[in-house]
Design a protein that fits this description.
Length: 256
Amino acid sequence: MSSFKVDRDLKTKVDTFREQITGEAENLVADFFPKKLLELDSFLKESILNVADLKEIHSEINIKVPDPIILNNIHDGPDVQNARKRKMEDGLCDENCQDDPKVFVMSGGMMKSNGQLVDLIERVKPEIRTLIEKCNTVKMWVQLLIPRIEDGNNFGVSIQEETVAELRTVEGEAASYLDQISRYYITRAKLVSKITKYPHVEDYQRTVTEIDEKEYISLKIIVSELRNQYVTLHDMILKNIEKIKRPRSSNNEALY
């Protein structure tokens, strides 16, 4: 059987990396996680996340409703009919479609986002990113502690694997929070675009308000979930720290 040789310098660097990960991960579990959960708990008690009347987070949409246009002749000319026919042939329109309405220019030059929600999102996003990064570090640490595969005496290994699975789940959930924020912006943008085309339809403006209220509630839930995940990970790892660091006991050696 041929021996598998590893360059000594490379092995030294890898061992140094393992020691660095171990020190950083142990500090995260023992010190960073409890401090962060207390910090997020204080964040949840701030006035910005405890608005009693959701009307306070509404953002005014300043789009002037144009005066109605009275048409004396409802018949389309040949140019309009030909243009509609070309749209139907290109699959851009069906037989009942109408010409696209004009988009009215905003007096301010740009339709602004909801400033209060943007400020809140800018505070929440770094917390989401931090959780993902710290979970990745702790996950790497636990994975490096998993011993080689053997028959029997694998109870501690199963605890390590469950810990890795929990850390991976938390990472995925945190990433989904970022997706949720992106969906909020794109959904709101589409609705505002509708308002610029159909400023006389009140329901579009009401829907933007509903979307803003929903996002505010979602952001508060996200902060609560971030805090809870720090609590859960800290508690789970501390309760099983002996099995995580030493998955296989040496009691069997004393029997012989």
